[in-house]
Amino acid sequence: MLHMIIRFSRAALYRHSRLAVPALCLAAAGCPAAAQLTTDSDATPTVNSRVPGIEITRLAALPKAPPSASTRQDCGPLDAPKSDGGKIADASGWGVTGEARLGAYDVVSFAGKFEAATSGSCEISAGNVALFQGRQLVALIYAPGHSKQSIGSVRSSEDKLRILDGDIIPMPVGDLRLASNGAIEVDPLAAADPICNGRDIAPNLYGKSIREARRTLLEQGWKPVKSSSSDPLSKSLHESGIAEAGGCAGTGFAFCGYAYRKGNMELDVTTFGDSDAPTVAHYAAACERSQWHLSN
């Protein structure tokens, strides 16, 4: 899959976000307004977005990609799509950035512009997320023209799919879920998410400083795993009281890793930035001791 390193600056989001539905319209001459893109079918499901700047609409056919989609090779080769929906998006000229399954739907993220950035990262714009049933397009998620949001890809997260923005260090912008009545919904990120099949929860740490994140984790019973890393940034963080900082990169985005444990679970956190309070870009749970990272 497209190599996308975690985002360095949210400011890039505002500089480079593109307009997904206008991109579709650029590709199809005479494309109607966004509200007219919905199908006239009375068939379910209903669709709804509660995330400001992200919309979802019923849509029956995928237009051709804009000419800017030819930049999809600028950030390295993409994996060949496996789902029927992914193959349709690819055949229409879009760059497929992710595929996942949600209930009866194949969910495909795709974009119309790619821009290589520093340290092997990639900025994605004109991004969308489509839901297919087989070869039939059902709904499209997009950022409208006035939005400061962007869409880059999707990834699985317990009982939902997480929508990531298109910045060079991608951050989640919302969660795609199926409601109990079958409705397709885009929801804001929750304050906490279940982990390890519901055995516990992990607080939403995205965009927080490591100091704020670790304080929240300690309050919830997670114990830091002391690191013996001796790189300059790790040592600096150790001296400031963050003994679990380890393996910090001395170049690029200055990624650092941290581990916290509770029972048989480990939460691995990644930050970026070389300040004394780096920003959390990602975290993931290891649910068995055999999956723990060794203390470094």
List the SSEs and their pairings.
Layout: H1 11-16, H2 20-27, E1 47-49, E2 55-58, H3 84-91, E3 95-102, E4 105-116, E5 122-133, E6 136-142, E7 153-157, E8 160-164, E9 172-178, E10 184-187, E11 192-195, E12 200-203, H4 210-219, E13 223-224, H5 232-239, E14 256-262, E15 265-272, E16 279-286
Parallel strand pairs: 1-10
Antiparallel strand pairs: 2-6, 3-4, 4-5, 5-6, 7-8, 8-9, 9-10, 11-12, 13-14, 14-15, 15-16
Helix coverage percent: 10-25%
Q: Which band does the percent of strand residues land in?
A: 25-35%
Question: If strands are numbered along the chain, what order do they take across the biggest sheet?
Answer: 1-10-9-8-7
The tally of strands reads 16
Question: What is the 3D shape?
Answer: globular
Task: Give an account of the 3D structure.
This protein has 296 residues and is α+β, with helices and mostly antiparallel strands. The protein has two domains: 179 residues, no CATH class; 98 residues, no CATH class. The protein is 14% helix and 34% strand. The protein is built from five helices and 16 strands. The strands form four sheets. It has a five-stranded mixed sheet, with no helix packed on it. The protein has a five-stranded antiparallel sheet with strand order 2-6-5-4-3. A four-stranded antiparallel sheet has the order 13-14-15-16, with helices on one face. A hairpin with a 7-residue loop joins β8 and β9. The longest helix has 10 residues. The chain starts with 10 loop residues before the first helix and ends in a 10-residue tail after the last strand. Keywords: Signal.
